[in-house]
UniProtKB/TrEMBL annotation:
Catalytic activity: a 2,3-saturated acyl-[ACP] + NAD(+) = a (2E)-enoyl-[ACP] + NADH + H(+)
EC number(s) on file: 1.3.1.9
Nucleus keyword on record: no
Keyword Iron among record annotations: no
Pathway terms, separated by semicolons: Lipid metabolism
Protein name (record): Enoyl-[acyl-carrier-protein] reductase [NADH]
Amino acid sequence: MSDLMQGKKGIIMGVANEKSIAWKIAERLKEEGAELSFTYQNEEIAKKVIPLFKEIEAKSYHKLDITNDQEFEAVFNEIGRELGSEVDFIVHAIAGGPSREDLKGKYLDTGRSSFLRSMEISVYSYVKALQLAYPFMKEKGGAAITLTYYGGEKVIPNYNIMGVAKAALESSVKYLAADLGQDGIRVNAISPGPILTRAASGISDFRDLLRNFKQKSPMGKLVKQEEVAASALYLLSDLSAMVTGEIVHVDGGFNITG
Ligand code: NAD
């Protein structure tokens, strides 16, 4: 521990349980001295996550379904007030939208509502979060990260509409970084290798994906949430002071292989 986040306050979105990538990021940021406010999706998830938030001594936690704009605005304004109108960082670890049928078979068969929901939940929510946090970040500057996946760059079997959503998310990272750089707000993404979490369990044949990843990856092993959290610490702290608009792969080199 080195107090890299001492005096920094931020919002973590997307903890569903103790396996969530967002949870390991939260633990690491807390260890480094950050003050944390959380949002969680719904009452069912609340049962699992509220004990975690209490354990980590969260500043606050709020229910927020990011498809509800009124709730989104109210919660971000409330968190802004709680954090004394200063937000130093945002962790956006939210993905969802596709129907189960659309996470297998052909992308060609994607349904309209599945397509639109995936874009809304997995892409627009990052734009909206930065829009709403901007008034609390613009004075001092800050940093935001989202989580993307290699399926946004190359075709991964069954990932389908989520791959297309991740491509749009990665492009949004660059547009947001361009918009916010003047205000000292940095916008980046981490692209981890596959990790067995709640979200990943919805993807058909995920275990085949893990096996293939392990075989092909130069480092020959799976990625752990803690390893993603270490890169999140880099991107959210002053260690990456001049890094923005980047997609940082935390995948043991998988993306460089042919
Ligand atoms: P997870 O299931 O723990 O997290 C996904 C989160 O999205 C959950 O907390 C869920 O509540 C939230 N969410 C979905 N719809 C929502 C809504 N309408 N309103 C509010 N929240 C909503 O799984 P995870 O693997 O930790 O996923 C976090 C991020 O990491 C996602 O963006 C995912 O695509 C990305 N990612 C995961 C992997 C992997 O293999 N697990 C690899 C690369 C990228």
